[in-house]
Write the structure tokens for this entry.
Amino acid sequence: MVATREKFSSQAPPDLLAAMRKIARNDGRHFQAVLEDAMRDYIEGRTQGNVRPEVMAHFRASLERNRRLGELLAKS
């Protein structure tokens, strides 16, 4: 299945575009694919909050592992 595409025009600082082009070149990918990934990541971050779910899972696990230490520190 071929995804439908819509052309759009925008502007960005030259250093930002150069960095995106370098990533695409280093990964052997098209600039458009890298841009789409960046847009998807941005949208996902905005719709799920600012913290990725896997980061929050690690954070929660760390809180649980260190619960006793937190209690002791709270008392001092």
Remarks:
- The chain has four helices and no strands.
- Residues 19 and 29 are 13 Å apart (CA to CA).
- The chain has a mean pLDDT of 89.
- The first helix runs from residue 14 to 27.
